[in-house]
Amino acid sequence: MGIIIKSDEEIAIMRQVGRIVAAVLDVLKSEVKPGIKTEELDVIAVKELEKLGGRPSFKGYQGFPANLCVSVNDEIVHGIPGKRVLREGDIVSLDFGAIFDGFQGDAAVTLGVGDITDEAKRLIETTGAALDAGIAAAHPGGRLGDISSAIQHYAELKGYSVVRQYTGHGIGREMHEEPKVPNFGVPKEGPLLKEGMTLAIEPMLTTGGWLTRVGDNHWTVSTSDGSLSAHFEHTVAITGGGVEVLTAL
Ligand code: MG
What is the CATH T-level fold of the domain 8-245, as seen in this structure? Predict the structure, then answer.
């Protein structure tokens, strides 16, 4: 299939869906508090999405049973919302995707539930900053490895590990398009970045090692060593002048 270059018109639609995804995550941010069940966040996400005219993209994807991924503490990605009650001191990663006018948007944030430890705060801040570093390294004429290595370098400098089994991805009409966007790599290597490429960049960091395990529900991915994990994601477009974050308000 190869990497699909989007036209300006297609990127304009992806900007719209990106804004929808960002708006839903923004509402969820204010709902995360001690005592809420993770399945309640899924319900809120769908209600907000319907108001904005989008459709959920995760539900049914390879059989995933929910609209929102909710991953708590040592869970990294693909957590299934359910009866679990968020407690003071937890950290929770919310990953949300939507479809609008045939195109996809995908973004994630990690939030503290009530008061969290300094260790957890620092992990969350660093993971967000690692995403920013990856985005800042993206420009036309550069290479995908510039993004990957910027994320890895920043994360490891701060003493964290980057998860390797799961990566970012191209995105467009499909949630997962080429290329894979690893969170580790070598500068000046990998596919050439060109105007019109649209990528979901999504560092997953841990306070321990980078090995992962999949839970009994066949979805939830956790750290093998039980260490804390955070996850941030934006859908971006490579533009003539550099890069544009599409999943922004
Ligand atoms: Mg993604």
Answer: Creatine Amidinohydrolase (3.90.230)
Sequential DSSP letters for 53-112: T-EESSTTGGG---SEEEEETTEEE-PPPSSPBP-TT-EEEEEEEEEETTEEEEEEEEEE
| Mean pLDDT in residue range 150-175 | 98
Pick from 213, 246, 225: which is nearest to 105 by CA? Answer: 246
Distance 86 CA to ligand 1 centre (A): 23
Whether 1 has a pLDDT exceeding 80, the answer reads: no
Q: Which residue has the tokens 């990605």?
A: 77
- Average confidence score pLDDT of the chain: 98
CA of 35 to the centre of ligand 1 (A): 27
State how far the Cα of 17 lies from the Cα of 138, in Å rounded to an integer: 21
